[in-house]
């Protein structure tokens, strides 16, 4: 009797489809435990609930890139999938965090939930800019693909001294990416920064995403380009190699560096940035950018007791409750939603 090949035949349940080959590749490439720290590696799903416009679809893809490499970059979604379907798939894959985009009548919402039992933090997105918008606004945008091979460094600012729910929110932010050991971390893997800043006066959280670039102090721009590009420069119109470095307009002198932005490296990063010399740290925003307001905290996974705000007026339906009602209607949907052209389940756990 012939046995069916893995990945073929009928699937049980209505969860997001993940081919068997992709599942095996992900489990082999990304173990659930960090070999250095011994801690469990947090993984995430970024998906949407209900109908959202194309701009939020792009924002969803940008958020998936932020959470790389421990997320599904092209997770397939269907309209009939409910929250339990994602939760059933999350267990075997070791997914610990959900980021859920929705679009109720007022403003877009982003829910950040800890699986499998919560809590859930609901943010109202008051302003946002896509990664493409930020790149178009820059003269020299910089976002090399290699920077997404490692998780970002999470930097928190302004959350201390405000009590709950911000104390528990800080813990959520801290553990949604793998922790690093300062004594063993390789500096070459630290290429991105995720900044989450609480503005007390406005009561909002600023979400910013940057790339990290190191430049050696005292080295001219031409030398840096020569070392980084590994290409022979065009010397046809020059009499001597020294003219390439000293000719007016070629940037022979090193750029002015702010002493406060320079660091002494403890180990070599590349051929230019070595432990023997100082390097200037430069941050360049790569997006997305969001301004969010915390409007609701639930004790469970998108359910349970409302921990924030504490006082809930009975008999009045809030925007968040309206959003939940929309999800309930959508969870029982019998119609299939056409899959996106780029919706191929894939992971970057390499």
From TrEMBL:
Stored Pfam families: Brix
One GO term of the biological process aspect: rRNA processing
GO cellular component, one term: preribosome, large subunit precursor
MF (Gene Ontology): rRNA binding
Domain Brix: 42-303
Comp. bias intervals (Acidic residues): 318-350
UniProt region (Disordered), positions on chain: 312-350
Protein name per Swiss-Prot or TrEMBL: Brix domain-containing protein
Organism: Eleusine coracana subsp. coracana
Source taxonomy: Eukaryota, Viridiplantae, Streptophyta, Embryophyta, Tracheophyta
